[in-house]
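Cross-check.
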Amino acid sequence: MKIDNPKVTLADEARNGVQEEVRSGFLDWLYEFNVEGDDGESYMVGGSILSMALEKIDLVAMCLAKGKGGVRQLPNSIYKVGVYPGACLNKFYRNPQGTLKIEKREHSVFVTCGREYSVECFDDNRWHIVTDTCDGEYKADLWHKPHGYPLWYGREKPSYLTQHSITYGYNWAGDVEGEFTYKGKTVKIKGTGQRERYVAVDSSAAELGGWEDWGFITFNEIHSSLYDMRLGMKDFSVYDLQTKKHYPEGKMEVTHEDWVFLRELDGFIPETYKIRIEVDDGVYEVKAHTCNARTWGVTFKVPDNPVGTLMFDKVEGKFTFRDGKVKVLTGGRGTMSIRQWHAYPNILPRELYSDEVKTGEKFDTL
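Predicted model, tokenized:
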């Protein structure tokens, strides 16, 4: 979405409501990072403060996923099953409404939700995130530094994801560094990731158009955030770190390929993403491979509307300029969060893609 002044201010970081009549108020300070540790491992580090007016709770979430996996072909079947390490830590803290506090300082906004989560948003656009399970299991101290301008959902004017889903806020890709300690081991990390500052009136999974993608792709040369409703709104922000050009408008196409069954989601996910974004100066193209996947949510039940986050390892990209010159992109990484109207494809009998060798309860999620 192109807006007159895309610069993020402290007023944007502190925004906690909308002018419209609220049916189901929702706001968050959220992050999802793809990083490398000084131990040589790949990590997906995430967390959020989610304030939900209808439920009257202020929720803190923390997640840590480690390593890479792959897929396994099922015997006597055309289907493949994802064999991913998933999340090694998923924590949720349900606090009563009013736990969330926003303190406006001279050069920052300081947001807390109980003892477990704080984020300080500085006027130079850095975020300092501190999370702690407060029981010795996990804590993290992270910095996020974005570049250029974010993908705006709405600022002075709201964005309408659907007729009644009114949203303000942004997604923003950037550099990440810091450290976390998990079960007594401290790991210094560095990579990239996306943060979200979001305020909404209402949303409906049935209006997603079947599938929703929300994520980031970064290279050494270009950072990008994107949001794609399969049959609805499509938005992105592409920022060229070398030319300092910002592209908030154009034509985007996201293609899913190489489907695999993810047990924890009770549905299928794409192993391969192909993204093509045409902007004024040329075409930005990405091919990304899923190496890990985890579910997310707040209710601990297998969802009617499945949600998950995919981590990419092999990420290739290029930018082809109008004059034919091609910029090959390096150092690619990213994550993609997905939300489905229903488990896809739910019309198939489960016997076609289930594997009875593994039994037991499925992981529960939203």
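The helical segments are 10-14. The longest helix spans residues 10-14. Passed to J.P. for a second look.
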